[in-house]
Amino acid sequence: MKIKTYSSILLALCLALVVSACSSNPSKTDNENKSENQKVTLKLWYWNGAISDASLQAAKEKFPNINLEAEKLPSGDDYLTKLRTTLAGGGSGPDIVAMDSWISSMLEYKNQFVNLYDQGAHDIESQYLDWKWKLGADQENQYLIGLPIDVAPVVLFYRTDLFKQAGVPSTPQEIHEQVKSWEDYFELLKKVKDKTGSQTGNIADIFRSIVGQSPENFFDKDGKYIGDQGDVKRAWDLSVKAFQDGLTFPFTSDTEKNAAINASKINSFNGASWSVGDLVSAAPDTTGKWGIAYPPGGVGNQGGSFLGALKHTKHPKEAYEVIKFLVSPDNLVQAYKEFGNYPSTPEIYSLPEMESKNEFFGGQNLNEVFSEAAKDVQIAPSNSQDIMVLNTIIEGLTKVDTMKKDANKAWEEAQTKVKRQLSR
Amino acid sequence: MNVEILSKKVFFHALLLVGVIISVFPFYWLVVMSTNETSAMFAFPPKLTFGSYFWNNYDNVMQNMNFYRAFLNTVFIAVVSTTLQLFFNSLTGFTFAKFKFPGSKILFYIMIGTMILPSQMLLVPQFIIMRNLGWLGSYVALIIPSIATAFGIFWIRQYALAIYDDLLEAARIDGCNKFGQYWHVALPVLRPALAFLAITTFVGVWEDYLWPLIVLTDSSKFTMVLALQQLKAAHTSDYSMVMTGTMLATIPLIVFFLIVSRQFIAGIMEGAVKS
């Protein structure tokens, strides 16, 4: 009987709470309107690691008449899902929004974004890396939906001690000069493996790196599928060759990869600038034995974000000013120091603050390699289907390793699968 | 004979022990990781013993997320949501089971039909409804849409079918109206079914991720799973910290399960003895 009394009280309470929550809503918006008259409120969405907290604080101090509400949201696909649903449902999204390298898929909805060129973005264009800037603009370069934050050039991470032991080029200088192509790199890997028994990343890593540094990948700039030929086929063949020569390490997850790196079973891999932090925390037993060098085959880019403003904002001018401040070179240096996001403004690469010597890398100044690589990044035309194609082909490629599938058969199957998906 | 029984017992207990180890290990590992540094996670061979970094990780969690705020938010939503769901589901389920009205069968099958729709498909339409109602960003948008669920109603109806009509008849003769029959007769009988529903609903609300992610924008209103995601950075994550946060977030669920499961089992026993 007692339980029943309690439960009916609880039920009544719950109903009352919900009803009161319904009715309290309008009064709240009234309050917001009132405060808006005095101070402009700008909402900003970002994820942990996109913008430095110190920079956000600095922005609040610089713009005393702007009430900047920055919401740190879950990162990765979740963030994209939330943004997409909000755009599709026409919900009250933020005024300012951080975007990752998927910004090209947002260009389809450019009408939902403020054209930053209209706000005077042309004036600061020259400060940024040209290839990075263009990722946020439409094909005609008339409509700009995001200003660049960071870039993520992919370079070669390698074990200086193992390379030395094998008698192959082992300084960044030597590697840059002597290991120019993937064929050179495989040659080197063979020697290192014979001497030390260590390998490079898995078969998919190699494919991803080669595709990433090609001037064209899965679609040409008119949207025609070319992922069954050219650079993609070359990347596939090279990856298969590396696997068949026993140069790749067959890890299937990041945990396995980290364990292999820490156990000195991996002598080198291609990684983006942000993987420095991952490597340091994953492989404490190899401290001091790593180095980075200009990568074989050219430079790709993996990631790097942008800040844009949504069209429904009532204050596009103020939003632009805040964005401009947050992506200013000074704040980008701050983000590099805080979590290793490499800035997209080349003018600051030579500043003494950018020097990053790390004991983990035997005191090498990483900035020397990154700054050179960042300027040489190759960008291929992007397409909203890129990720699907990449995942399908990598799925097929992985089977060559894990299931010892015939490489030609796997290629045919992957291509059939991609084409079936594309025809839907 | 005795030896045979004993060896059988030993065998089954050994088998059960293996089962227990397999199911408990992930949680054990979670606790171990929350007391170690991240680097220990990737060490080879992996570290399987407790470390001394728990308070360190705890401090990191508290600095990087508003843990207790998120905790209270989630408790609030889970309690309100579960209570309302139990009430509306059992009321509807009981009605479907015991009262015949025109179209009741068709209504029931239509409702069952909605279970086929994947929740992802409802995301955008539901979002638009919430926007039009002006509920975006508030807890009402989390609670109201799931106030009655097809599964819950179906579950209760199946259970309520077993209630004797004579029992309800007797209550009616004693002066109970229809709501009284539900409140005084059906609810006590439905207790084990409600306990099960309470567990699944509570856990479901506690773990719900996609809908709160879409609806909530103010991080001070975030539920536990959303707030935990804030611990993860875009590239480099401090996994010990994430593990510590996850472990702390799991404890209330275990406590709740222990409390309610006793009800659940008590209910089963009660029924068994009476019949």
Automatic annotation (TrEMBL), chain A:
Keywords: Signal. PANTHER family: ARABINOSE-BINDING PROTEIN-RELATED, SUGAR BINDING SECRETED PROTEIN. SUPFAM superfamilies: Periplasmic binding protein-like II. The keyword Chloroplast does not apply. It comes from Paenibacillus radicis (ex Gao et al. 2016). This is Sugar ABC transporter substrate-binding protein. The lineage of its organism: Bacteria, Bacillati, Bacillota, Bacilli, Bacillales. Residues 1-21 form the signal peptide. InterPro entries: Bact_solute-bd_prot1 (IPR050490), SBP (IPR006059). The keyword Transferase does not apply.
Automatic annotation (TrEMBL), chain B:
One of its GO terms (biological process) is transmembrane transport. It holds the Pfam family BPD_transp_1. It is found in: Cell membrane. One of its GO terms (cellular component) is plasma membrane. It is a multi-pass membrane protein. One of its GO terms (molecular function) is ATP binding. Keywords: ATP-binding, Cell membrane, Membrane, Nucleotide-binding, Transmembrane, Transmembrane helix, Transport. Residues 71-260 form the ABC transmembrane type-1 domain. The chain crosses the membrane at residues 12-31, 70-94, 106-129, 135-156, 240-260. Belongs to the binding-protein-dependent transport system permease family. This is Sugar ABC transporter ATP-binding protein.
